[in-house]
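Customer escalation, tier 2.

The customer says the design service returned an amino acid string that "doesn't look like it belongs to this structure." They asked us to rerun it and document both sides in this ticket. The original structure tokens are below, unchanged.
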């Protein structure tokens, strides 16, 4: 009898694996079809939306170690070079071996890039022969170096004729800049940029309305313009409208990783996000999505294991801020049948709100209980 029960259970497991495997295969084919032409923003919207959760704060990328495809450390991130007109990350300026002149590395050369480190998608020869720039290189100088850097790192389409140097700058030049509207009303100060380096995109500029790191709101990078003297940024928005968008709670950073909230940031400033799947009218893509949805409905994916949910929460917290690891040492993330319970102590209400927002983004607000105490 015991062997019969085990045999039946084994058969169920095999059947579940086949169903899940089939669903994942269809989903992979669907995503592949949707994102096949990466140069077409309509066809890549679904793929780009899926990358929101792994975008990084540029201030946390600074000094992150850079490794080649084989895992060898070859330098560290010094800065990013951006184009505000397109919202693109054109290249990473990498400090190689302590040299004063940083190496110019096209953004799409990277396989990954976050606070823990960046990895190139290629094997590289010695950095001593790579295109370098001076430590104080301006936009014109960097644009001239990009085609050579593209050749060195095997990246095509590094032509720079379409870029306007007046709206190209380093990320470090943007952080701390005051933001004004055309009427010269103060709208705050830039405190962060959110970028997805491997796809060469800046997703958001984060502005503190109060100027001191509080009352935050996000804007599409393409909504900003550098003034001719490069001393400040211009945002075409009314002060009252911006004030209504500013948030001072812990939900802000987590919301930027949620697709609908991120799309609304762009719509608030009259722009369409390249990850706005709802604006993809291609009938072929609609058929693919319908196919995935029909298969999902007929063969629902088994619920996640409790341990998997706990791991996803921890990973989400680390993506938000690697320093969360220290604070989480005093927090217990319990999970029973998909319902999460948070217990323990946190340092303040701000961190409590941030943590509960992260948990809600993983399991939904109806599937967790907050029993945290503020010490």
């Amino acid at each position: 009898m015991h062997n019969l029960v085990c045999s039946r259970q084994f058969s169920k497991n095999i059947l579940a694996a086949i169903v899940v495997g089939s669903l994942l295969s269809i989903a992979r084919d669907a995503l592949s079809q949707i994102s096949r032409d990466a140069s077409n923003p309509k066809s890549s919207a679904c793929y780009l939306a899926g990358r929101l959760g792994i975008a990084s704060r540029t201030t946390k990328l600074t000094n992150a170690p850079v490794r080649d495809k084989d895992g060898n450390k070859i330098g560290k991130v010094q800065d990013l070079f951006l184009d505000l007109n397109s919202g693109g990350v054109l290249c990473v300026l990498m400090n190689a071996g302590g040299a004063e002149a940083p190496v110019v590395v096209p953004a799409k050369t990277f396989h990954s890039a976050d606070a823990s480190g960046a990895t190139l998608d290629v094997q590289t020869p010695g950095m001593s022969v790579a295109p370098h720039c001076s430590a104080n290189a301006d936009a014109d100088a960097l644009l001239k170096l990009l085609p050579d850097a593209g050749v060195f790192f095997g990246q095509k389409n590094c032509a720079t004729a379409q870029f306007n140097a007046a709206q190209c700058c380093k990320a470090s030049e943007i952080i701390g800049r005051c933001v004004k509207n055309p009427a010269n009303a103060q709208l705050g100060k830039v405190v962060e940029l959110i970028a997805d380096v491997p796809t060469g995109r800046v997703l958001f500029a984060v502005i503190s309305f109060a100027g001191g790191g509080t009352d935050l709101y996000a804007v599409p990078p393409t909504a900003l313009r550098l003034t001719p003297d490069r001393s400040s940024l211009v945002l075409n928005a009314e002060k009252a409208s911006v004030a209504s968008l500013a948030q001072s709670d812990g939900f802000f950073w987590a919301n930027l990783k949620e697709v609908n909230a991120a799309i609304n940031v762009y719509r608030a400033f009259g722009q369409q996000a390249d990850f706005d799947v709802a604006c993809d009218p291609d009938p072929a893509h609609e058929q693919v999505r319908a196919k995935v949805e029909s298969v999902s409905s007929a063969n629902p994916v088994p619920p996640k294991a409790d341990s998997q949910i706990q791991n996803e929460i921890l990973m989400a917290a680390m993506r938000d801020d690697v320093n969360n690891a220290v604070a989480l040492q005093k927090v217990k993330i319990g999970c029973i049948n998909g319902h999460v319970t948070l217990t323990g102590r946190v340092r303040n209400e701000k961190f409590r709100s941030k943590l509960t927002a992260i948990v809600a983004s993983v399991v939904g607000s109806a599937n967790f209980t907050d029993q945290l105490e503020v010490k």
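Tier 2 assessment: The sequence is consistent with the input. The chain has a mean pLDDT of 80. DSSP finds twelve helices and 17 strands in the chain. Sent an explanation to the customer and offered a walkthrough call.
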